Amino acid sequence: MNNQSKGVQNSGANIDVKDYLFKVLAYWKLFLVTIIICLIVAKFMNGYLQKKFSLDTVISVKEENNPLFSTGTNIAFNWGGSSDELETVKVILQSRSHNEIVVKRLNFYIQYLQDGKFRLEDKYGYTPFIVNLNTTKPQLLNKLIKIEFKSNTTFELSFDFNDSGNNAVINYETNRVSSLPSSESNFAKEYSVNELIETPFFSFKIKQIAPFNIGEQFFIKFASFDGTVGANKAVSVSTITNAASMLRLRKDGVNKKRLEDYLNATVKVLDSVKQIQKIEYAVKTRAYIDTLFKEEELKLIKLEKELGEYREKNNIFDLSTQGTEIFGEAISIEKEKQQLLSYRDYLINLKSYLKSNNKYNRDNLVPASLQIEDLKIAELINNLVTKSSFRESLRNLVKDNHPDVIQVSREIEIVKNNLLENIFSLEQVNSNRLRKLNANLNKYQSKKKKLPKKEQGLLSYQRDYELSEANYNYLKQKKYEAGTAIAANVSDVKIIDTAKDLGQGPNYPIPSFNYLVAIMLGGILPLFYIIIREILDNKIHTAEEIQNNYSIPVLGVVGNNAGNNNLAVFERPKSSVAESFRALRSNIQFLFKDASNKDSKTLILTSSVSGEGKTMISINMATVFALSGKKTVLLGLDLRKPKIYDDFNLPNDIGIVNYLIKQKTLDEVITPTKIPNLDLILSGPIPPNPSELLLGNAADEMIEQLKKDYDYVIIDTPPVGLVSDALELFKHSDAVIYVVRQNYTERGMMRMIDDKYKNKEVANISYVLNDFSIKNKYGYGYGYGYGYGYGYGYGKYGYGYHENEESTSFMSRVFNIFKPKK
To answer: What is the mean pLDDT of the chain?
Structure first.
């Protein structure tokens, strides 16, 4: 049974997974209770937490051109596609100005509320009425106004004024907040539907859209306009993967109807804004052409009149053949020169505008009355305007030192420089062409001087009229093109999928997820409790634990004694506890120094501290020897805290102490018991010097005499962890039983006796694990003897050597609730 080498070898053994599994499973009631509590909390939170929903809409943002026009015409040069189109749209959708338009269009600053189970619920879109607000009048700000239906067409409107007498009101037309005094504490009045409710604090009508439920109550509140805009700006805009021109707009909130209306409205506002932006250049160009057209029309009428008057006055109506030929050459040159001059003026104005501005928009661009011949100019202008618009949208969201604004500004500067370089190149080309045309016109002037004076005058009038008529027809054509471009505008924004309430469940809280988390927490929290308890626990729990960590061998285990006293073997001989002591009786034969010797055997029982059950073990070991027909005596040598007398219902007046101080003889202190073959020597009165008495010669003589008179001498000694008396008595022993109690004895307490065993200061000693239960959370059985797993509880043993009190603190009772049954 030598376990020394094994104990040393296994001192650092690996964790027994099976053992820990059984420990965890032993807490199944704690797991069950914790999971149930967590599920109850999850159910409550699922009902208590504000439900949040998510709706989305999908749109396509793609440049759509009218096939009747091309980027080469002056009124449509900005129709080319833009690489920043999607980014511009994203910024617009999240800009404050855009969302202000949406909030105003939907009157979202009017809140419709109703009492719910835990809070006021948003009932927008689910009320049987709507509020038609007079936005030019002040409205009571952030005050709950109760509406209670009194009949199918009437309702009572009521609210409480502020205690201070000053009430904030807001004018949504000007977005100004002011204060109005009130002399009353509350307001209550009955109104009819569609009746104008006019007070200094509000002005609106209640329009009925569904039947009223008499007695039902709602609340309305006029919120801050800026606050409402800020709360609704959080529209998530993302590009759809593998669909570069498509955007998904998503919004989260507590009211699906509100989300639906807001998303659809924001797309409509975006569509109208983009349409206006798309045709604004055409509109501006048409207005500019209209001005030129009227001027040219008046000029043409004047020239026609002057030409007619000249013909009649000079009696010349047609040019000669030579004059007609000269006129034909000159008119084509003059038309081309006029176009080049107009184009030159446009380039000069455009260059001046680019150099004198750092923000570029279509309102400030100077329209050209002639066709732009270089398509590169049209492309650069459109790119410049788009990037400038994108930068201004970014500035509404971030500061100028933001990296995105800095990057766009750099790109704008690059485009601007490229545009100026192209303008310079076009000016050079234009100048060369004008020089050639002027040279040809000089030839025309020379030929013209050869004609008669009257014909020269007619030629000049007819040339001016022809040029004006050509310009008039050109402007007329451009006016028609601009009008057609406006009328035939194609939207860049197309709705692929509108936002719609299809019965979507909330995305927060998610009941199934919360229940899953509750189950996980219900399992994890007890595990933390078990781990912490294991870390803080320093008790002995299993025989394997003793065997793996100590050198002294384990003799056996004794189950829990559920009886009223310690006479378990005698009073319940068929119990499992009795069987465990019979097993110990058999095993202890291997512990005696010379088991074959028929001489008397002395068995000493000790423990680390009081309360570990050494007295109970002593009584029952003496009983099993006595019942086997061996003459046995049980000595109570725990002179400081005697206990044996109580189990035999005897007074402790006379005992070993009386013998040791020579008051009584040995025969006088020996007491027969009701158990056959078992005599008892009590400790007697508690002496002031127990150690001196036990170490004296009288004690040695007494034990030697008892060995002669009895087959077995069982000695119940004091705990070795508290006093040294027991160690001095070991010299009389043939075997020593060191009692360890499950869930009671601390690991460090056994180290002292184990060290003495390893140093061979103590021999023939074994551990007995007392109060063992197989159902305990710390073990799954041990193969020593019989009888483990007997109910639960610790019998009547208290803790400590000097006190015999059981802990009844509140925390002990709470933790005992979660202790698994043994």
So the answer is: 81
